[in-house]
UniProtKB/TrEMBL annotation:
Pfam families: Aminotran_4. GO terms for molecular function: catalytic activity. Its cofactor is pyridoxal 5'-phosphate. Coiled coil: none annotated. One of its GO terms (biological process) is carboxylic acid biosynthetic process. Keywords: Pyridoxal phosphate. GO terms for cellular component: cytosol. It comes from the Bacteria. Belongs to the class-IV pyridoxal-phosphate-dependent aminotransferase family. This is 4-amino-4-deoxychorismate lyase.
Length: 252
């Protein structure tokens, strides 16, 4: 039963979408930390723990699915669905359309995954109606920020870049993994620089690392740096699954 509260009326709630592969919730620590940070920002008291999530997965065995956890003042709701990304998208890349909506780097809501997600949903719907798979946002200064459901990376002259958080973006879990494990430079990225990139890719919890073949009318190859990172990410997923089953004394 859903209780009516400020989450329902005013969007005062937080959520996480977690990829579950072979029963293993990927980057669970990072997701829970971000959920709690968002709850603290909204003044919500939550007691959700890793064990709570693992207990849910014991009674709801999932594979290649998305686990969503939504938390508001009076509610903690679990739901799940299939991971929507397909093998052909990883082979061909996805296309992105620059939205006319601008990110607001001065709003603290920009940096938390709250129920106030309307811009993302509407702009993504508009992009898909025009034949694109993702919408991209710039901020009011014309700097590239993020996608409606993803973080953005570019490759230029062999270097990997991603927009700095202060440009106005939600810090994603896979973005954090890449920043921790690889040489990635956080910088202010003008739109012109995006158009001139050698390679472009997106990240989020469900897609992992997704190559971009097109932004507006500009096309990109699936280049060697993106391929290398995609391979490394697949190995990281395998490592997390193996660790998950060792800790739970199970064989997969």
């Amino acid at each position: 039963m859903i209780h009516l509260d400020n989450g329902f009326y005013y969007g005062m709630g937080v959520f996480e979408t977690i990829a579950v592969e072979a029963g293993c919730p990927l980057f669970l620590d990072r997701h829970l930390d971000r959920l709690k940070a968002g709850a603290d920002f909204l003044g919500l008291e939550i007691s959700l723990s890793i064990d709570d999530i693992l207990d849910y997965l014991k009674t709801h065995p999932l594979d290649h699915q998305a686990l969503k956890i939504a938390v508001s003042e009076k509610n903690t709701v679990y739901s799940h669905r299939q991971n929507p990304y397909t093998s052909s998208q990883y082979q061909e890349g996805v296309s992105c359309l620059l939205s006319e909506v601008r990110r607001n780097p001065s709003s603290p809501f920009t940096y938390h995954k709250t129920f106030q997600y309307g811009d993302n949903i509407i702009c993504l719907k508009e992009a898909r109606a025009k034949g694109y798979q993702e919408a991209l946002f710039c901020n009011s200064d014309g700097l590239v920020c993020e996608g409606a459901t993803s973080n953005l990376f570019i490759v230029r002259a062999g270097e990997i870049y991603t927009p700095k958080q202060s440009s106005g973006l939600l810090p994603g879990t896979v973005r954090a993994y890449l920043l921790d494990q690889f040489e990635v430079r956080e910088e202010a990225i003008p739109l012109k620089t995006l158009y001139q990139a050698d390679e472009v890719f997106l990240t989020n919890a469900l897609m992992g690392i997704m190559p971009v073949r097109q932004v507006d009318q500009v096309t990109y190859p699936l280049g060697p740096h993106t391929r290398k990172l995609m391979g490394a990410y697949r190995e990281e997923v395998k490592r997390q699954i193996e660790a998950h089953y060792r800790q739970n004394n199970r064989v997969y």
